[in-house]
């Protein structure tokens, strides 16, 4: 855990307290246990969980630096990444986790209860459904997603949830720059404007990683997001 504490501080300026470290250790243990019963994540060993889940979640901090979101939505959160590790570090942030797979949503709920986290909710639904829900549409400062879909599809999941003046953040691998370029038209259509790409380095991880930041500059037209499954079948 010492390496994680050090790397979080050096790479992303995230200073973990003893309590936060305990929460992460607990989270990691539950993840390893549940993974034996349900296939929650392909990353199973403790070393990789710390780098590719926890540290990777903290790379998001490079995007907002000293100005974290008040309200954050994490779409396709899976076993809770990056939403839960971010919630552990920012106790006052309101976090909404969106997950369409039942057992993953259930695990997130279990972790929230186990760690006693407050002001964080899990919604077991699809992003397209949530984006048309008046209670959630255009109500978040930041919408984040990690490796959920190609950027032109992901933009239709995330941008409708972001308020004008807010930001969409996609955690991407080496295809990030190419995807960002080819998704610019889709972003514009949805009220977004490509802001920047931030390269991310994780210790011991060879492949390139990027944070793709998209500013929400105009309201999303009412017809987006389209019905569940359509963005994937016929991307913008």
- In CATH's first tier, which class applies? Alpha Beta
CATH architecture label: 3-Layer(aba) Sandwich
Helix content: 40-55%
Query: Over the alpha carbons, how many angstroms does the gyration radius reach?
Result: 17 Å
Binned strand content: 15-25%
Q: Main sheet: which strands, in order across?
A: 3-2-1-4-5-7-6
CATH topology: Rossmann fold
Number of domain modules? 1
**What is the count of helical runs?**
11
Summarize the main sheet.
7 strands, mixed
For the residues shown, what is the average pLDDT? 96
**Uncertain stretches of 5 or more adjacent residues:** none
- Provide the structure class: alpha/beta
Query: For this structure, what is the CATH homologous superfamily?
Result: Vaccinia Virus protein VP39
Give the termini distance in whole angstroms: 43 Å
Count of beta strands: 7
Order of helices and strands: HHHHEHEHEHEHEHHEEH
Overall geometric form: globular
């Amino acid at each position: 855990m010492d390496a994680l504490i050090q790397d979080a501080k050096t790479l992303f300026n995230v200073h973990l307290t003893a309590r936060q470290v305990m929460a992460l250790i607990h989270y990691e243990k539950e993840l390893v246990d549940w993974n034996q019963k349900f296939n929650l994540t392909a990353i199973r060993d403790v070393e990789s969980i710390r780098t590719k889940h926890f540290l990777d979640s903290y790379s998001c901090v490079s995007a907002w630096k000293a100005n974290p979101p008040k309200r954050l939505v994490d779409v396709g959160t899976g076993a809770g990444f990056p939403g839960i590790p971010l919630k552990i570090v920012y106790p006052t942030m309101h976090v909404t986790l969106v997950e369409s797979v039942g057992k993953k949503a259930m695990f997130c709920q279990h972790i929230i209860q186990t760690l006693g986290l407050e002001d964080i909710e899990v919604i077991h639904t699809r992003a397209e459904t949530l984006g048309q829900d008046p209670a959630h549409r255009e109500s978040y400062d930041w919408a984040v997603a990690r490796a959920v879909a190609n950027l032109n599809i992901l933009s239709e999941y995330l941008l409708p949830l972001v308020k004008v003046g807010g930001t969409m953040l996609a955690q991407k691998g080496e295809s990030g720059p190419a995807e960002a370029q080819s998704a610019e038209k889709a972003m514009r259509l949805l009220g977004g404007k490509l802001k920047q790409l931030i390269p991310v380095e994780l210790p011991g991880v060879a492949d390139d990683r990027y944070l793709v930041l998209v500013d929400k500059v105009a309201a999303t037209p009412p017809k987006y997001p389209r019905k569940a499954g359509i963005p994937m079948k016929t991307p913008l």
